[in-house]
Every structure is written in C-alpha cells, then in structure tokens.
Amino acid sequence: MGRRIHFVVDPQGWCCMGLVIFVWLYNTIFIPKVILFPHYEEGHISVVAILSYYFCSLFCIASLLRASVADPGKLTENPNIPFTEREYWELCNKCNMMRPKRSHHCSRCGHCVRKMDHHCPWINNCVGEDNHWLFLQLCFYTQILSSYTLILDFCHYYYFLPLKKAN
C-alpha cells in the first residue's frame, strides 16, 4: 500500500468533505450532550457507552482523513515497463501516458490510477489499488457509528423518555 500523501484540488470535493466533517462534528457534540451525558447522570447508561461512542467517532474521522489523503495508486510520469510486460500496458488517450490494463483515467484528478474503482467526492479522492482498504475501513466505521447513533436515538425516545415520564 502506498504511503505517499495525495491531495486533490476539487472545490466540489471540498464541499462534500466539509459537509461530512460538519455532520460528524455535529453528531460528536450533539448526541453526547442530548442523550449520553444526561442519561449517564441519571444512572441509565455507563461510562463505557460514552467512551465507546467517542472511540467509534474517533475511528470514523481518522479513517476519513486517511482515505482522503492516501495515494490511490497514481501512475508515475515515466514508468519503467519491463519488456516482458509491455503487452499488458496501453496508452491513455487523455493524458498520453502508458498505463497498465485495469487502470483508468480520472477526469476529476487529471491522472491515471491503478485499479481505479471510482472517484469519491465524499473523501475528495479516487478509490484505487493503494487506498481501497482505507475506503472500506471508512465505510465500516461509518456504519458502526451510524448504527450506534441509531440505537442511542431509539433508546432515548422509546426507553429513556418513558422512564423519565414515569418518575
């Protein structure tokens, strides 16, 4: 997996990523303030639930940042193609560079990416050979955080609030 930092200059991608960070920040502040801390003080939930929520949130934002700045597998300017592998390479008609088969040119980033899956505006980066695992990690942690938030919302409205009204 590549360790180079890759930064895409795309205003639409910046807006999408800014929206994602805003939603993450809003949920990281709002959910604990409205649901976790009041019910912790009432004794309905433990400190483990609060710490778990913050760890899920931290993993989610860390994987977002890692996926957005990781090199997706950008091809170098002058690749050193072994003579025996030349039949597996082709010329890109957009950037006029030699690229291996299964590589695609990204019109947003302006370069060819090895085993490109798609350009994701939410991470403002292509998903390719070198950052595909990081993108899957982001999807996993986002699913965990979303499910945890949904469970907390459900418990708040259908379990904790009726307890408060009964008292």
UniProtKB/TrEMBL annotation:
EC numbers: 2.3.1.225
Description of its domains: The DHHC domain is required for palmitoyltransferase activity.
Main localization (coarse): membrane
Annotated keywords: Acyltransferase, Membrane, Transferase, Transmembrane, Transmembrane helix
UniProt name for this protein: Palmitoyltransferase
Domain Palmitoyltransferase DHHC: 89-161
Topology of the protein relative to the lipid bilayer: Multi-pass membrane protein
